From TrEMBL:
Top-level lineage group: Bacteria
Originating species: Agromyces seonyuensis
Protein's UniProt keywords contain NADP: yes
Name assigned to this protein: ferredoxin--NADP(+) reductase
FAD/NAD(P)-binding domain span: 5-166
Length: 449
């Protein structure tokens, strides 16, 4: 029986689950090459999930097992599809190609002043504090100003707000780079205002995430009790949504706790729509309008504004793209171009269903994708027309692509642990791609001695 060879684009949760499930679910032999444009695996688990959420991040242990223990599953990091390999080439060399490359862009508010200095996407801020190699070390300076606003009321907004008030000792327990710890240590921001367009009943973050905020010792969490006098629409929503009801009950506890005179404050402002960022070159304020009463307009001075209104997929040349939804259009996880299925091309994760759900949601999503891949393989009688792994490797070598394989990644990990130990921390991320590649080279050279 011939071996089916599958390319998976992206090593985030959806790519890792796809690789794992392909090998688990297939009755015939299957080999999977997982490509990532970064030299490091795990996508947003490494560069999105908050550094002070180690339990969520520990899912990487089970993803690593897929690469460590499954014969035929390879990691090919530092290979960007669309640059180093085209989609046409992938289709030529593999029996099936699964795009699981996430949603690396962000939605804009579309209001005046959005391009002022000091107005950024929360995605950029998150990438910066996570030490993403695409982010300059000095992309954010937190000195000088005192008030930041975060526009949006999802879990990512709360992550950013919490990071802005976290104690430096807490940050040193994470793996974020030293220059980021120092930037937070030097921060003069002492108030973060989180702005929701609708009332508190419609906040999207989870109760668990909000409780975590209440547990940050340095910080008062301020909610205006008047905001918790809910109108009929909000009350009807609570009646139908137990999670929202629990969250509003916790808001009430926070409002009852009142202001404790702590050093920093996170303040929630509901029923406000941003209409303009104010400033000349650099942001100095934000104009807000009451969503329920457009005659109420107020200006709030701000030094840093982060919009957190959703991630967005990015088009790849040669792959259909739905601009409005920001996803690759699909039917039963098979990519479609208009009404036609693009044979042998599939999607999984955020690029398939949009930026929603937790890490585990991508497992169910990947399973649906794998079922379609394997059904199509079976319909072809299992015959493979794929090239060998060696052919793909030679193609990349011929283009001078320095592929980071799984043992290289293990070397990068070891270098990160050593960098942490040197300064009394558990681990510190290498945040410069050249440093990551150097760590891989050094380990390779030592192994070769
Ligand atoms: C800030 C933030 C915090 C979060 N916190 C949590 C949390 O606490 N708990 C939780 O359960 N979930 C959390 N999530 C959600 C979770 O991270 C996502 O559900 C999940 O990462 C989506 O997986 P994915 O594989 O579709 O995309 P991604 O994780 O984005 O992975 C996509 C991968 O594709 C690669 N790629 C992109 N383009 C190319 C290309 N052209 N060629 C090759 N490779 C490419 C990228 O480098 C990346 O590694 C968070 C998300 C964010 C943004």
């Amino acid at each position: 029986m011939s071996v089916t060879r599958v390319a998976v684009i992206g090593s985030g949760p959806s790519g890792a689950y796809t690789a794992q499930l392909l090998t688990e679910e297939s009755e015939s032999p299957v080999e999977v090459d997982v490509f990532d444009r970064l030299a490091t695996p795990f996508g947003l688990v490494r560069y999105g999930v908050a550094p002070d959420h180690p339990r969520v991040k520990s899912i990487t242990t089970s993803f690593a097992e897929v690469f460590d223990e499954t014969p035929g599953v390879r990691f090919l990091g530092n290979v960007e599809i669309g640059r180093d390999l085209s989609i046409a080439e992938l289709r030529e060399h593999y029996d099936a190609v699964v795009f699981a490359h996430g949603a690396p862009l962000d939605r804009r508010l579309g209001i005046d002043g959005e391009d002022l200095d000091g107005v950024d996407a929360v995605r950029q801020f998150v990438s910066w504090y996570q030490g993403h190699p695409d982010q300059a070390a000095d992309a954010f300076v937190l000195q000088g100003g005192t008030r930041a606003v975060v526009i949006g009321v999802g879990n990512v907004a709360l992550d950013a707000a919490r990071m802005l008030v976290r104690e430096v000792e807490d940050l040193r327990k994470t793996d974020i780079p030293e220059h980021i710890v120092e930037a937070f240590a030097a921060s003069t921001i002492d108030e973060v205002v989180v702005i929701g367009r609708r009332g508190p009943a419609f906040a999207k973050f989870t109760n668990k995430e909000f409780i975590e905020l209440l547990e940050v010792d340095s910080t008062d969490v301020v909610i205006d009790a008047a905001d918790l006098e809910l109108d009929e629409v909000q009350q009807a929503h609570l009646a139908s949504d137990p999670a929202a009801k629990r969250l509003v009950a916790t808001f009430q506890k926070a409002a009852d706790r009142g202001v404790l005179g702590r050093r920093k404050t996170i303040r929630f402002v509901f029923d406000r729509t941003p209409v303009e960022f104010l400033g000349d070159g650099t942001v100095t304020g934000i104009r807000l309008r009451a969503t329920s009463d457009p005659s109420v307009v107020e200006d709030l001075p701000v030094d840093l504004a982060l919009r957190s209104v959703g991630y967005l997929g990015k088009p790849l040349e040669g792959l259909p793209f739905d601009e409005r939804a920001g996803v690759v259009p699909s039917r039963d996880s098979r990519v479609i171009d208009g009404d036609d299925v693009v044979e042998g091309v599939y999607v999984a994760g955020w690029i398939k269903r949009g930026p929603n759900g937790v890490v585990g949601t991508n497992r169910k999503c990947a399973l649906e994708t794998v079922e379609s891949v394997l059904a199509d393989v079976a319909a072809r009688g299992g015959a493979s027309t794929a090239s060998s792994a060696e052919t793909v490797d030679a193609l990349l070598r011929g283009r001078d692509v320095r592929v980071v394989d799984w043992s290289d990644w293990r070397a990068i990990e070891a270098a990160e642990i050593a960098a942490g130990e040197a300064v009394g921390r558990e681990r510190i991320k290498l945040h410069i791609r050249a440093e990551q590649l150097r760590a891989a080279e050094l380990a390779g050279a030592t192994a070769g001695v």
